[in-house]
Amino acid sequence: MEDAQMRLKTYNKLIVVRDPLERLASAWLDKFFISPGRFSFIRRLRQAVGNSKFGNTTTKRALPTNRSRRGSMHGARRAPPISIRDFVWSIINNKYRNEHWEPFFSQCAPCQVQYDFIAHTDTLVEDLRLFFHMSGIVGKDGILPRQHPSRAKAGFGRTFRVVPPEDIRHLGEIYKPDFDMFGYSIEEDLEAIENALKQNV
């Protein structure tokens, strides 16, 4: 315990965060839509809420098209077992909590741990390079990860455009500490969703 306290006081501390709604989109895509292992999450959510709650509330047209690891197509040809609208409903009504979509502020104690640096996933490589520089770490650029385009971010507006605006606003309230502390904007997210609605793609 003393060793941990010493590290918290003397080490440079880094936290990596993500736009809250993009994180939700990623969790839904990975746990309820694309991943072959998603069925355990679907089963738990159905058990928590009751099978009768869930229907196909997401239209085929609204779903992003993706290819799973097994090569089968999902999205354009069939609706997922749990729609994004039902997933959002379960979060708003606190039906199924999980670390993959639980707000950061409730997991990482940002008010108790004085983090020295906040890195964003969408600028992770640049942020880590700056963190290395600030920490006096040199010659380690080779261990930096590659910056890949985010699947969730690419289809962000299309994913959420079927969710009622009042539900998006409710999510904004639930994740408000994350938005405020980590430099994200619910208004910018709403604008991206609105643009997707206008494009109707």
TrEMBL record:
Membrane protein topology class: Single-pass type II membrane protein
Matches recorded under Pfam families: Sulfotransfer_2
GO cellular-component term (any): Golgi membrane
Record flagged with keyword NADP: no
Protein's cellular compartments: Golgi apparatus membrane
Q: Which GO terms describe its biological process?
A: carbohydrate biosynthetic process
Sorted UniProt keywords: Carbohydrate metabolism, Glycoprotein, Golgi apparatus, Membrane, Signal-anchor, Transferase, Transmembrane, Transmembrane helix
What EC numbers are recorded for this enzyme?
Answer: 2.8.2.-
Q: Which InterPro entries match?
A: Carb_sulfotrans_8-10, Sulfotransferase
Locations of Basic residues compositional bias?
67-77
Which residue intervals make up region (Disordered)? 56-77
**A GO molecular-function descriptor:** sulfotransferase activity
Q: Does the keyword Chaperone apply?
A: no
Per its UniProt entry, which superkingdom is the organism in? Eukaryota
Family, according to the entry, reads as follows:
Belongs to the sulfotransferase 2 family.
Annotated protein name in UniProt: Carbohydrate sulfotransferase
